[in-house]
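Example 9 (inverse folding). The structure is encoded as follows.
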């Protein structure tokens, strides 16, 4: 069974995608003041997942050159919106193969050294990526409001169905609610 933190990441991804539903190429590439373009956000999150879940595991990048285009600290850019979504889909599909294998023990391990200043457990990186999605989901909503888009999502979606709370036992197995045993 997939670890609950992986379910939370997938839910955050789905909410990010929901926040950008219906955006066209022009809107996706538009930059308002110092805010990131929506296309940059999509590519930026894809880049993080590629680095954390693929490259750190010794895999070749699915989308070479993405970090230099939309990576942290790079100059602002407005890459093609459709191309960034395609990169995001390819990378998250490949990343899911790794994420589906994670156990509690794996999450407690230090990740391979992504960069000298970031030596965190795989579980902490999973939390970091999930939080990063929520950060950019909020930013995307602000950009869309400034672009004049209407009928935007106004609340977190169906977390109860897509990523409900599931307690874990001390050995790392996921317990389905109501089946913990007892008297």
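The amino acid assigned to each position is listed next.
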């Amino acid at each position: 069974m997939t670890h609950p933190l992986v379910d939370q990441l997938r839910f955050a991804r789905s909410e990010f995608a929901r926040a950008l539903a219906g955006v066209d190429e022009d809107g996706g590439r538009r930059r308002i003041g110092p805010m990131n373009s929506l296309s940059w956000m999509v590519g930026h999150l894809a880049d993080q997942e590629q680095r954390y879940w693929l490259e750190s595991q010794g895999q070749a990048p699915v989308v070479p050159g993405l970090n230099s285009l939309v990576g942290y600290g790079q100059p602002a850019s407005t890459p093609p919106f459709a191309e960034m979504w395609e990169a995001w889909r390819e990378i998250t599909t490949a990343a899911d193969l790794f994420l589906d294998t994670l156990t509690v023990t794996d999450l407690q391990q230090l990740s391979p050294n992504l960069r000298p200043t970031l030596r965190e457990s795989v579980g902490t990186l999973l939390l970091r990526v999930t939080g990063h999605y929520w950060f950019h989901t909020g930013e995307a909503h602000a950009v869309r409001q400034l672009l004049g888009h209407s009928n935007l999502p106004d609340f977190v979606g169906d977390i109860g169905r897509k990523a409900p709370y599931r307690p874990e036992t001390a050995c790392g197995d996921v317990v389905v609610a109501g089946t913990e045993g007892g008297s």
